[in-house]
Amino acid sequence: MSSAVRFGVNYTPSQGWFHHWLDFDLDSVRADLDSIAELGLDHIRVFPLWPYFQPNRTLIRPKAVEQLVQLVDAAGERGLDVNVDGLQGHLSSFDYLPAWTRTWHRRNLFTDPDVLDGQAAYLRTLAAALADRPNFIGMTLGNEINQFSAGPHPDPDRATEEQIGAWLERMLAACAEGAPGKPHLHAEYDATWYQDDMPFTPGQAARRGAMTAVHSWVFNGTAQRHGRTSVPSEHHAAYLVELSKAWADEPHRPVWLQEVGAPQPLVPAEHAAAFAEATIANVLDCPDLWGITWWCSHDVSRELADFPELEYGLGLLTNDRQPKDIALVLAEAAREPTYAPAPRSTALVVPADPSVRSVCGPGGPVFDAYFRLVADGARPATVLDVRADDKEHLAARGITEVVSPDQVLPTPQGDTSS
User: Fold this and answer.
1) How confident is the model at residue 377 (pLDDT cuts 50, 70, 90)?
2) pLDDT at 339
3) Distance set, CA 309 to CA 72, 93, 96, 220, 256 (Å)
């Protein structure tokens, strides 16, 4: 059956970046949203900065919440739905955590009872403020908050898989209390799928919340190993979508490609549009896709210091709101939002044990086998080893053939272009 796919963008304000919450200018926001709506996109994902909104554990600033509601209303006036990320958290290499969780008040983000009370109150408050807005999609708990729970973060808040599971349940429940009936979810960067000691696990990502979210960035070793026009680079987002399905209990659980971008210099600016075109076409060949949300809307101003170089040019639009070639690619895709991909009948076996999930990452045998299959013309899905003989599960997903990595020729040979 055909269905609609959502096309949107992660909203990065053109003026002041996310620090715009400190000097909120609704006219500037409206102009940004106009430039996004003109591309024909249907939603945005927005990022209140947690320390600005909740500077004290028992103070959630009413003015900040009011400004968030104004932004959501302005988006609705332009036909844009809005997903709101709560716990920011981490954005573009910078951490934004309230002072009541750090240094002299150092408390674990995932296990301390007082911190959990504060987080739940904050998420509940944001959700409740937006619950009656028809264009409010729902909450995402935070942006890649798993990066705080393990290395390579320089000062991680360590927690066990069980403690993270309890944290996810409580925070999702808080969102549901604030805005009942909305599709609330959580989202992590790809260490959830690739890093053996990450306490946020694939099973949690694929089973908790209203849908599964994946964030695809080829600077994780994929483009470095294989080049920007290689099968692994151009299919990496599709791979994460399909990899996530191995752990899902629901055969057709929706998957949201919530972040994907074209990072320089691995994808030079003059090749960004071609990379986006290939990435989108390949993801649209994945069944059960909820939507594609590009990172990001507007470039970071060069007036702002200390960002990694790649962050300055990731926008679909320039800092003065002019569309780039890559924006036109997304606009073209959004003009035909229905799709009907065939089931993926060949499934590659993935180990269910999260302590060995690195086999799924760049250079791992599952990763390499998957892209060897793609290079040979297959359209692989994935299945957990513990379900590889489950005929009912396989049939529900349309899988008729199961192969293991050792049955597939090793390491795909991509180009080495930069």
Assistant:
1) very high
2) 84
3) 30, 11, 20, 16, 27
**How many whole angstroms separate alpha carbon 313 and alpha carbon 296?**
9
- Pick from 220, 159, 226: nearest CA to 193: 220
- Taking only the tens place, the pLDDT of each residue in 295-340 is 999 999 999 999 999 999 999 999 999 999 999 999 999 998 678 8
Contacts of 16 (CB under 8 A, 6+ apart): 22, 23, 301
pTM > 0.85: yes
pLDDT tens readout for residues 388-401: 999 999 999 999 99
Identity of residue 30: R
Q: Which residues pair with 346 in a beta bridge?
A: 380, 401
**What CATH class does 3-339 carry?**
alpha beta
pLDDT of residue 410: 60
Per-residue tokens: 31: 């102009």
Q: How far is CA 124 from CA 67, 73, 136, 179, in A?
A: 17, 19, 14, 8
Average pLDDT over residues 25-52: 98
- Residue 259 CA to residue 296 CA, distance in Å, equals 8
CA–CA separation, 44 vs 28, rounded Å? 16
Q: By the 8 A CB rule, do 152 and 158 touch? A: no
Nearest Cα residue to 150 out of 132, 138, 163 = 163
Q: How confident is the model at residue 3 (pLDDT cuts 50, 70, 90)?
A: low
Q: Cβ atoms within 10 A of the Cβ of 415, count?
A: 12
Residue ranges of domains in the chain: 3-339, 346-407
